[in-house]
């Protein structure tokens, strides 16, 4: 039996878990203020007079407001020339917004409200006109329908993409952000380690999913943000199959899960065998580990993101797999940016020439798929320091001892 896999119980493993002993401090109002100032500078560079940010991850990033997107417009207008941010808010939600903003901005905010029968886009245009905005950059995550209605209402105001501003801020993480992500990823790795111990013949994917969510809760998260559990042939489908499975002796096990801490995400995958690995699984696991290592080594400051993907694919090609997306081989990009969104710019994929810079954070997951048989994905995250890439969590050391 693989070391660290099986031999324990759900109750024993959960009993050993408690709140994270050294929690990272939350993001301060001062840091969010510095983010807004950088956004103003980038907006001015792009020739935009204001940035409009909708509900979602970027609103949390710039204003500390945790607010899910819905059909009702809630947005922040950040004037490039300075001054208080203006919030466009449903009138009946004003109290909730004020509570959310309390202590989060370190500055005054102007809240403009619209009633249910009124047009929030007309209100937004009125505010933009008062601010003298003639060119507004829009949050790239704003729903198309909202962006289109805003552009339609603002006939004398040019609406332009705000990706260069929003991504230009969010893709380089501060030490405080990196500390929060380190905690989230460490918590998820601990949940992984405990989940491996409860495996036994007959356990279902639903059983393991429930355990991991509860483990995340015991460690201090609000459960799992997502959880993919795959056994046997199902591991050959990168994001799973729409049915539950039951574990059998000799099955490949692939678990991909994460949580968040103060909104910052983890996303870690481990692949191992319940029982004794066959020769093919052992060989491909080793190639996967080499590809993950090559990707990490290729992450050099100033190099384009696509170099990291190319390095992983060279290892695969040298070991008889397709250098492209054909199977058996790697069917998707090598990695993605991560932060307040689980997938965010930039990406470790061919065609993304974004230079690697200090503070950028990525997944590293060059999965190998053998159709109809099994798949192997080892996923850990790293960030770019002044000295190059640094792992948030140490990669799986071996197939025989996946957790050391």
From TrEMBL:
<keyword id="KW-0482">Metalloprotease</keyword>
<feature type="domain" description="Creatinase N-terminal">
    <location>
        <begin position="35"/>
        <end position="171"/>
    </location>
</feature>
<keyword id="KW-0378">Hydrolase</keyword>
<feature type="domain" description="Peptidase M24">
    <location>
        <begin position="180"/>
        <end position="385"/>
    </location>
</feature>
<dbReference type="InterPro" id="IPR000994">
    <property type="entry name" value="Pept_M24"/>
</dbReference>
<protein>
    <submittedName>
        <fullName>Xaa-Pro dipeptidase</fullName>
    </submittedName>
</protein>
<keyword id="KW-0479">Metal-binding</keyword>
<dbReference type="InterPro" id="IPR036005">
    <property type="entry name" value="Creatinase/aminopeptidase-like"/>
</dbReference>
<comment type="similarity">
    <text>Belongs to the peptidase M24B family.</text>
</comment>
<dbReference type="InterPro" id="IPR001131">
    <property type="entry name" value="Peptidase_M24B_aminopep-P_CS"/>
</dbReference>
<dbReference type="Pfam" id="PF00557">
    <property type="entry name" value="Peptidase_M24"/>
</dbReference>
<dbReference type="InterPro" id="IPR029149">
    <property type="entry name" value="Creatin/AminoP/Spt16_N"/>
</dbReference>
<keyword id="KW-0645">Protease</keyword>
<dbReference type="InterPro" id="IPR050659">
    <property type="entry name" value="Peptidase_M24B"/>
</dbReference>
<dbReference type="GO" id="GO:0006508">
    <property type="term" value="P:proteolysis"/>
</dbReference>
<dbReference type="GO" id="GO:0008237">
    <property type="term" value="F:metallopeptidase activity"/>
</dbReference>
<dbReference type="InterPro" id="IPR000587">
    <property type="entry name" value="Creatinase_N"/>
</dbReference>
<dbReference type="Pfam" id="PF01321">
    <property type="entry name" value="Creatinase_N"/>
</dbReference>
<dbReference type="GO" id="GO:0046872">
    <property type="term" value="F:metal ion binding"/>
</dbReference>
